[in-house]
Amino acid sequence: MAAGLLVVLSGPSGVGKGTVCRQLLALRPSLQLSVSLTTRQPRPEEKSGCDYEFAAPSHFQKLISEDAFLEWAVVYGHYYGTLGKRVEENLLQGTDLLLEIDVQGALQIRRRLAEAVLIFLAPPSMEALRERIAGRGTEDAVRISRRLKAAQQELAAYQLYDYLVVNSRVEDAAAAIDAIIAAEKCRVSRGARPPASGGEQR
Ligand code: 5GP
Fold first, then answer.
1. CA angle centred on 104, ends 139 and 67, rounded to 5°
2. Quick check: 20 and 167 in contact, CB under 8 A?
């Protein structure tokens, strides 16, 4: 059985990663979304074990000291991380896994797992990003400018990724990522092979 594909999607806050992921999972139901651990508080609509696993900072620190994370990062003052064992188990079973993580985490994966496919989701413009962050209504003016400043730095990292997808329309962005996954799964270097010979004569 071929190993599963590890797909990493990242991009600045407000670019629409969550919406694009949901659309992508609808297009490709065999893709599993990896559930991260975080020390931030759950939002009202979030379920533990589904959106995130919510952990106490002391538990997160313990897992860091045990080297349990494939990657982890501090994002806006909270810890976020992906458990290595879980990723390994899924990939060995042939399951394709989607990680929706920040740029710091994606670059750690780049160093540790060269075969991962890194996709950067970019906004159509900085103005569109500002409108999306402000439109969510969850951030005040100071936080919006902090996120936009962080976004400028994150955008500069796109060159370290394998693919760049611009999220002008969610459906198009999801379709582009779906096509990237389809193409990666056809790579001979990833183990794609023709069917075994059935002994037919020419
Ligand atoms: P939020 O708290 O809004 O769900 O996520 C904040 C940021 O943390 C987003 O950019 C999201 O992609 C990132 N994030 C979520 N899970 C992980 C993770 O496991 N590792 C890293 N490095 N970033 C994560």
1. 120
2. yes
Ligand 1 contact, 148 CB (< 6 A): no
Which two tokens mark 65? 């000291």
Q: Which of 15, 17, 33, 36 to mutate to test the pocket of ligand 1 (most atoms within 8 A of CB)?
A: 36
| pTM tops 0.90, yes or no | yes
Euclidean distance between CA atoms 108 and 103, whole angstroms: 9
pLDDT of residue 156: 94
Q: 122, 119, 129, 124: which is closest to 178 by C-alpha?
A: 119
Determine if ligand 1 sits within 6 Å of the CB of residue 16. no
* Residue 100 belongs to domain spanning: 6-190
Instruction: State the CATH number of the domain containing residue 27.
Output: 3.40.50.300
Domain count, the chain: 1
**What integer is the mean pLDDT of 24-53?**
95
Establish if 14 belongs to a structural domain: yes
